[in-house]
Amino acid sequence: MTAIPIQPATPCLYKAATQIAAAFHLTVVNSPPPDLPLLLHLTQARLELRDRSAKVGPVYADFIGGALSYRRRYGGGRKQALAKAIGLKHGATPTVIDATAGLGRDAFILATLGCHVQMLERSPVIAALLNDGLERARADSKIGTLMTQQLHLIHGEAQYWLPQLPCPDVIYLDPMYPHRKKSALVKKEMRLFRLMVGDDLDASALLKVALTCAKQRVVVKRPKISPTLDEMSPTFNIESKNTRYDVYLIRGEGH
Predict the structure, then answer these.
(1) Angle at Cα 109 formed by Cα 103 and Cα 115, nearest 5°?
(2) CATH number for domain 66-249, candidates 3.30.250.10, 3.40.50.80, 3.40.50.150, 3.30.2310.20
């Protein structure tokens, strides 16, 4: 895949674009080649990933409004499947490393439920989008303190970083989902991310590293009908409508 540059929407945004590019090892262009399919576009409001080959809207990180705002208020709290899989219960709020953070949605939900979450994201484009969303959310009057205190991002390879960081209670993995036969079912965001980074072919290796670094459990998010990673049987799983959480307990932790 060709490198994805940042285009500032106006000349006054050029300095901000160069700062993002330096932080995430990207480049800045004023006039991208016409055949470039994907482009990061920096506007006054946010950083966006745009698909220039299709008439679809941009992809960006948003913790303030939209679906995440609704889920934060009405998502079911600690009764939802994600919370149960992580081990959130009365008197237990584990520390978490989300080793495949993406745009940070699950990490955000866990933070709203009280967890401190360290996010790892290796894709420079996705990490730049996530960081932009975090910065905007930190300035928000309602969730700014939460974002500052309980969510932190490292741009880097999880298999390298996991052994370097203090061991968390839980390591959460959400590797790129396997291909679906019906491409119409694949979300716009997932399609663009797959175009950028391909499948997570090292997901099984990452699971093995995670199992040596977590104190209590490793949780792997999978499509409901997909096989387990590396054919490793989890201790148990928790299912929601379309998703299955495979839970691997460490040293016999109860549930």
Answers:
(1) 110
(2) 3.40.50.150
43: its two tokens: 């506007």
Cβ-proximal residues to 122 (8 Å cutoff; 6+ apart), any chain = 155, 156, 157, 158
Task: Fill in the amino acid letter for 57.
Answer: G
Per DSSP, which regions of the chain are E strands? 6-8, 38-42, 47-51, 96-98, 117-121, 151-155, 170-173, 217-223, 236-239, 243-249
Residue that has been written with the tokens 């009908």 in this structure:
225
CA–CA dist 42, 215 (Å, integer): 40
Instruction: Kindly state the DSSP code that residue 34 receives in the 8-state scheme.
Output: T
| pTM above threshold 0.85 | yes
Q: What is the pLDDT of residues 59-116, one digit of tens each?
A: 999 999 877 766 666 556 788 999 999 999 888 899 999 999 999 999 999 999 999 9
57: how many CB neighbours lie within 10 A of its CB?
A: 10
The number of residues in the chain equals: 255
